[in-house]
Amino acid sequence: MRTPVTPRALAYGAFAFSPPEPTPDLAGPRLPCGPDLEGRPMARAEKVTTVAELTERFQNSSGAVLTEYRGLTVAQIGELRRSLGGNASFSVVKNTLTKIAATEAGVTSELTDLLAGPSAIAFVHGDVVEAAKGLRDFSKVNPLLVIKGGVLDGKALKPADIAKLADLEPREVLLAKLAGAMKASLAGAAATFNALPAQLARLLAALEQKKSEGGAAAVPAAVSPGPEGPESQAAEAVPEGAEESPESS
User: Fold this and answer.
1) Which of 1, 4, 122, 207 has the most CB atoms lying inside 10 A of its own CB?
2) CATH code of domain 44-168
3) pLDDT at residue 38, rounded to an integer
4) pLDDT of 203
């Protein structure tokens, strides 16, 4: 009968083999986005801090655009952030905490109702038109970025509204056109004001001439003889009875 062999403990310096690690996700690495990474468990204190930060960002931003980033890689997200530049900041958010923060910031429910799936928000704190252009152009090249809606100055925006914003001319161009129109209007007003004294002088001269012509025409009409001559006028001036003969008396 064979004696069972008892396994011995590993001696110092011996090798040990661990099970193989799981295959990494082929869809790409997860998006690191600070404390608000979607899907990562968070402590209660961290949730409170995140809600406060999101509330402040909603309040201090002129607008916010909600997107879905499913399938985008870290490199693509970095490219999007660079394209937005200083006009907007792009952050992955947790839907539940974002709903709380948006409610506390007074954001319309039309935006919070869209919080479903992997969500990321572009908080606009620069040129709204340029931010919309950056998101629109990136989504054309990378269709995995889906623009779901947004809010601007407290009003809800649909994807079509954001596309219209992106079609507008840059703020600098619009300001230049406005300045040109105002300059032309001011130049026209100045020319009008400069012409007023000359026009007023001509008007006064015409009125004086008309007045003098009217007075000269009235004087001859008052002294002109009647149709029967001066003799008839003198006869008409003799009172009745003055022509009777003295013999009749």
Assistant:
1) 122
2) 3.30.70.1730
3) 52
4) 74
For residue 13, give Cα distances in angstroms to 9, 19, 58, 244. Answer: 12, 19, 58, 175
The answer to whether the beta carbons of residues 170 and 129 sit under 8 Å apart is yes
Do 108 and 154 form a contact (C-beta atoms < 8 A)?
A: yes
Can you give the length of the chain in residues? 249
Beta pairing partners, 157: 150
**Three-class SS of residue 13?**
coil
Query: How far, CA to CA in Å, does 205 sit from each of 153, 211, 215, 238?
Result: 59, 10, 16, 48
pLDDT at 246: 47
- Spatial strand order of the sheet with 63-68 comes to 88-93, 119-124, 63-68, 146-152, 155-157
Which segments of the chain have a pLDDT < 70?
1-41, 170-178, 180-181, 184-193, 195-196, 215-249
The 3 state secondary structure assigned to 52-101 is HHHHHHHHHCCEEEEEECCCCCHHHHHHHHHHHHHHEEEEEECHHHHHHH
**CA-to-CA dists, residue 67 to 24, 49, 76, 142, 218, angstroms:** 26, 23, 14, 13, 88
Whole-number Å distance between alpha carbons of 37 and 51:
13
